[in-house]
Design goal:
The structure is a single chain. With about 130 residues, the protein is mainly alpha-helical. It contains six helices and no strands. α1 runs antiparallel to α2 (about 30-50), α1 (about 5-25) runs antiparallel to α6 (about 105-129) and α2 runs parallel beside α6 (about 105-129).
Length: about 130
């Protein structure tokens, strides 16, 4: 494995790029895709923190689990739990009880997801730098 800080920066740089893409999606009204992308942004940013701390392999996709040993504000933990709900149902019609993701997710959900993901990226920067 690469040096921990180098690996962390690789993950964080991808999270930042993905966040930029989510912002474009928000502007273009792809709300379900934005919600999913923000879950992914947060996953990569949290993994960057764990790599920076010296972990060699970081598995999993659940944000709540990835952050379980981190000292985070309760509000951010709540936001991570919401983002976790966007991992599958935002992508697959059978992930919802009815309808299709692109018609169900809202601008408000996408706005909130971008804000939450931005907070996680900022946190990762603070932890790594």
């Amino acid at each position: 494995m690469k040096e921990p800080k180098t690996e962390a920066k690789r993950w964080l740089s991808q999270a930042e790029n993905d966040l930029e893409f989510a912002i474009v999606g928000l502007r273009e009204k792809f709300y379900a895709q934005v919600c999913f992308q923000c879950q992914q942004v947060s996953e990569k940013a949290l993994k960057s923190i764990r790599y920076a701390s010296g972990e060699r392999i970081v598995y999993g996709h659940a944000l709540v689990d990835l952050a379980s040993e981190m000292d985070l504000p309760a509000q951010l933990k709540d936001e991570l739990a919401v983002l976790d709900q966007y991992y599958i149902p935002t992508r697959y019609p059978n992930g919802l009880p009815g309808g299709v993701p692109y018609a169900v997710y809202t601008k408000r959900q996408a706005d909130d997801a971008v804000k939450s993901a931005s907070t996680v990226v900022k946190l990762a920067h603070e932890q790594i730098e």
